[in-house]
Design goal:
Elements lengths: L1 H25 L3 H4 L1 H25 L5 H27 L31
């Protein structure tokens, strides 16, 4: 039964790591490329490390804490580093493919001007 769990964690981790790495290589701009390693690859490497911790804990003398500590460190630092990278990119005004809303939208959308109402004098 343990072999099936380890196989699932290893195959799932390898798939997520591959998808995250492929996203890093194939996506167009910096902001979309940031999602690959911070989401999918983190989950993939985390499941590989959990599989390693389970394997060496059952085959060795005791609990394998090295992999658990590395996994904890990975899950804490990946979102923080992604946030800092995104803030630095915004500060440097890197171009994005996403549509940016206008800074000063029109006061009244075209075709919906309020016209003179009861509170306005004509």
């Amino acid at each position: 039964m343990l072999e099936y769990l380890l196989s699932f964690l290893i195959l799932g981790g390898a798939a997520f790591t591959f998808i995250g790495s492929l996203g890093l290589a194939r996506l167009e701009d910096f902001y979309t490329r940031l999602h690959g390693p911070t989401k999918a690859t983190t989950l993939g490497v985390g499941s590989l490390l959990i599989a390693s911790a389970l394997y060496f804990s059952t085959r060795g003398e005791g609990m394998s804490l090295h992999e658990v500590l590395v996994t904890l460190f990975l899950f804490i630092t990946a979102p923080v580093s992604a946030h800092l990278l995104a803030k630095a990119a915004l500060h440097l005004k890197l171009p994005s493919l996403a549509a940016v809303p206008e800074d000063n939208p029109p006061a009244h959308p075209v075709g919906n001007s309020p016209g003179p109402g009861p509170h306005k004098r004509a």
